[in-house]
Design goal:
163 residues, mainly alpha, Four Helix Bundle (Hemerythrin (Met), subunit A), 80% helix, 0% strand
């Protein structure tokens, strides 16, 4: 197994983990269940770790695919540039989840507000990491962004005439 395999496998963890963690946390807040909230925090921390692994295996994945015919460097660059925002948001999410976990464990009066903030960060992080995944998917799944590929390569759509 090389960095490409690890990158492709692990990239799904922060996407689905942040969303699932947000749902579990929302349910824990709704039911006032500390056990459920703590389970959500664990999911969110694991998602943050997954984001770090995905980010740091990205360079190796890029080197493996950049010379494959049909792979457009511009799409790789867009994915790479956006991935830093997702990474930062998930690292902030992981830190918030760890803080919320500690405060919940200690039965602190500030645990509920921190839980709500963590939920908001999880939802924002999901949006950022989902967008990053979409941009990454366009690198090899040209059906996701055929217009972008054609634009990047200077190809006009068939049947479209210049005016």
């Amino acid at each position: 197994m090389n960095q490409v395999h690890v990158h492709l496998i692990i990239t799904h963890l922060p996407i689905f983990g942040s969303l699932l963690g947000a749902f579990v946390l929302a349910y824990g807040l709704w039911t006032s269940s500390n056990t459920t909230k703590m389970a959500a925090y664990y999911l969110l921390v694991i998602s943050a770790i997954g984001a770090g692994i995905a980010y740091f295996t990205g360079e190796g994945a890029e080197e493996s695919v950049e010379d494959i015919p049909g792979v457009v460097e511009k799409l790789i660059k867009e994915h790479e540039d956006f991935a830093i925002f997702a990474l930062v948001s998930l690292l902030v999410l992981g830190a918030a989840a760890l803080l919320a976990l500690y405060l919940t464990y200690k039965n602190s009066s500030t645990s509920k507000p921190i839980s709500v903030v963590t939920l908001l960060i999880a939802l924002i992080s999901f949006g950022l990491v989902a967008r990053t995944g979409y941009l990454g998917g366009k690198i090899r799944h040209t059906e996701l962004g055929m217009a972008d590929v054609q634009k990047a390569e200077g190809i006009q759509k068939e049947g479209k005439e210049d005016d």
